[in-house]
């Protein structure tokens, strides 16, 4: 079933071998509630705890491909959720720092990572709007929730040459890639429309 899912994702345009390899390897059914297990290898988003969703595999693959990672890169993920995207990043042998703001989900996924032996460098409970300044700069930053605007903190935590992949918008989101080309210069590209749960800011 994983091979089949990788095939579907490849047919939709994903080319990067390691990304398809991740989909072929990672047991997505274990990241989902048992009531949805039978659907785990469909190319669809599904509900997880705390009213959140596990992203559609194609979307995970697409965002990961846009990051253009190489082994050893430092990557910040905002919105750990089920941890599936985290596992895809770990498969690419990058150093993963990941942040989740829903406590219930944070705890659930923490136990799951321990049980599965998935080892991000840091797994933080907090507000991803602020990024993780103490670990910056990052070669890649990936936001897995829809952001009304681009958080300034995330731009400032990109390494020169680094990439931020962020879905921007309210009702629907435009997948946006920001390349930091120098200390003060950022190049912006748009890569189609998607739908995500909202990126929420802690207002305190
Ligand atoms: N990559 C995850 C996507 C989960 S949905 C997966 O495939 O399972 C997006 C996640 O972003 C949710 O878990 C939500 O709680 C989280 N989120 C929303 N706003 C956030 C913020 N400001 N900081 C960190 N996480 C946030």
How many angstroms separate the termini? 45 Å
**Please, how many domains?**
1
* Superfamily (CATH H level) name: Vaccinia Virus protein VP39
Described by its quaternary structure, the protein is: single chain
**Per DSSP, what share of the residues sits in E-state strands of 2 or more residues?**
25-35%
| Beta strand count | 9
Can you tell me the overall shape?
Answer: globular
The helix content, as a percent range, equals 25-40%
The low-confidence runs, each spanning 5 or more residues with pLDDT under 50, are none
Tell me about the biggest sheet?
Answer: 7 strands, mixed
Q: Which structural class should the secondary elements be placed in?
A: alpha/beta
Could you give the order of strands across the largest sheet? 5-4-3-6-7-8-9
- Reading the helices and strands in chain order gives HHEEHEHEHEEHEEE
The value of Rg in angstroms is: 16 Å
Bound ions, cofactors and other small molecules, one mention each: S-adenosyl-L-homocysteine
> On the 0-100 scale, what is the average pLDDT?
96
CATH architecture label name: 3-Layer(aba) Sandwich
CATH domain fold name: Rossmann fold
| CATH class term | Alpha Beta
In DSSP terms (H or I, runs of 4 or more residues), the helix count works out at 6
């Amino acid at each position: 079933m994983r091979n089949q899912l990788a095939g579907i994702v490849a047919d939709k345009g994903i080319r990067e071998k390691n990304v398809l390899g991740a989909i072929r390897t990672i047991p997505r059914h274990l990241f989902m509630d048992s009531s949805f297990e039978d659907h785990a290898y469909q190319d669809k988003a599904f509900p997880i705890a705390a009213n959140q969703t596990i992203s559609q595999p194609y979307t995970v693959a697409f965002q990961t491909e846009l990051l253009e990672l190489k082994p050893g890169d430092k990557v910040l993920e905002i919105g750990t959720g089920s941890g599936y995207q985290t596992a895809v990043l770990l498969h690419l042998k990058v150093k993963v720092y990941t942040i989740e703001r829903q406590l219930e989900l944070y705890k659930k996924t923490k136990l799951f990572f321990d049980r599965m032996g998935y080892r991000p460098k840091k797994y933080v409970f907090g507000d991803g709007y602020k990024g993780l300044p103490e670990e910056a700069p990052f070669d890649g930053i990936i936001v897995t929730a829809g952001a009304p605007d681009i958080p300034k903190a995330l731009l400032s935590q990109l390494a020169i040459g680094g990439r931020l992949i962020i879905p921007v918008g309210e009702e629907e989101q435009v997948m946006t890639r920001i390349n930091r080309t120098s200390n003060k210069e950022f190049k912006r590209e748009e890569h189609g429309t998607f739908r995500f749960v909202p990126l929420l800011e802690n207002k305190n």
